[in-house]
Amino acid sequence: MFERPAAGERAVVVQLDLNQGKLDERLAETRMLAESAGATVEAVVQGRRSRPDSALFAGSGKVEEIGGLLREHRADLVIFNHPLSPAQQRNLERALQCRVVDRTALILDIFALRARSHEGKLQVELAQLDHLSTRLVRGWTHLERQKGGIGLRGPGETQLETDRRLLGQRVKMLKERLARIGKQRRERRRGRERRDVLSVSLVGYTNAGKSTLFNAMTKAGAYAADQLFATLDTTSRRLYVGNAGNVVLSDTVGFIRDLPHALVAAFHATLEETASADLLLHVVDSASEDRDAQIDAVNKVLAEIGAADVPQVMIFNKIDLTRAPAAVRRDECGKISRVFLSAATGEGLNLLRDALAEIALDALPAPDSASQLATTEDQIIQS
């Protein structure tokens, strides 16, 4: 479905130990990110530092090692699985004489590749421009002179100033368009609230199986794949859950650790759907050794978008890989807190449907005393 860049961009990946823990999981995730962006990982550079070098992030010795691997593998770019400051990125590119991409830029690139809806494309462009605005100086030093020559004499500003002004105008236009889309989304949401329909959003770490679960529950046919950020655009479907009637189930963008703040801000309208939900189904890849850190990363983003107080049910997916039985767990108050299932095989889906019915029935507004009295009088008359 998604067009990937032509194969051939060879990358050297840099993953330093800055006491974050779970380095193997982080490195595997970076490989997936690089491959999702269309790169081939030719070599990996690792090392340990107490803190990043202010000028080169990795230090001069490590940069020499990176340069050697670049030449050995004839690589095209270096991918740092860390956020780089504009100065660090500029210094690294000068030292290595090649493109240097940090974690933020890599994730933005994948989002640009995945975006399909008009809203999604606007959101990604806004995030990219926000990231670019701090890095305009890179590669523009030859244009910082006053413009001149026939047909090129400008109104007294440098090329760099012109680009910053045009970028600012584009950012303003994108924010205005997204504000209009956000208003339309809120109006649709108010319409659902008036009909007293329980709103349920699937959230979770990227590639945890949200879209697979969404398809299994709703038969919607949303795109699902074993790749990072397969879903960017929110998809909603009505789901019948027996005596409780219908609920609205929404599939949303996956989260990831160190999600760029620019993306969270740009996707505000989409993420509002999550913050305004009545219930979050937090889908967890139970087969991942790093699942606890992934749960924490998702909860951190939920807090950032104002959804920390929305009730959650943890969905431990992929029990077909862990050989755990399908089950429902309750907290000390008797409320459903966890459901163990496999979206791929369908095992445990009936338990989730029953759980949603129970939660939806509990959430239904109690009839007021007047309507109760009228119902009782009708029953007496009929009898």
Q: Would you write up a description of this structure?
A:
By secondary structure, the protein is of the alpha/beta class. The protein is 45% helix and 17% strand. The chain has helices at 23-36, 60-73, 86-96, 103-114, 118-132, 159-194, 210-218, 261-266, 268-275, 291-304, 319-322, 349-363, 369-382, and strands at residues 9-17, 39-48, 77-80, 99-101, 198-204, 235-240, 246-251, 279-285, 312-317, 327-330, 336-340. The strands form 2 sheets. Strands 6-7-5-8-9-11-10 form a 7-stranded mixed sheet, with helices on both faces. A 4-stranded parallel sheet has the order 2-1-3-4, sandwiched between helices.
SSE layout and pairings?
Blueprint: E1 9-17, H1 23-36, E2 39-48, H2 60-73, E3 77-80, H3 86-96, E4 99-101, H4 103-114, H5 118-132, H6 159-194, E5 198-204, H7 210-218, E6 235-240, E7 246-251, H8 261-266, H9 268-275, E8 279-285, H10 291-304, E9 312-317, H11 319-322, E10 327-330, E11 336-340, H12 349-363, H13 369-382
Parallel strand pairs: 1-2, 1-3, 3-4, 5-7, 5-8, 8-9, 9-11
Antiparallel strand pairs: 6-7, 10-11
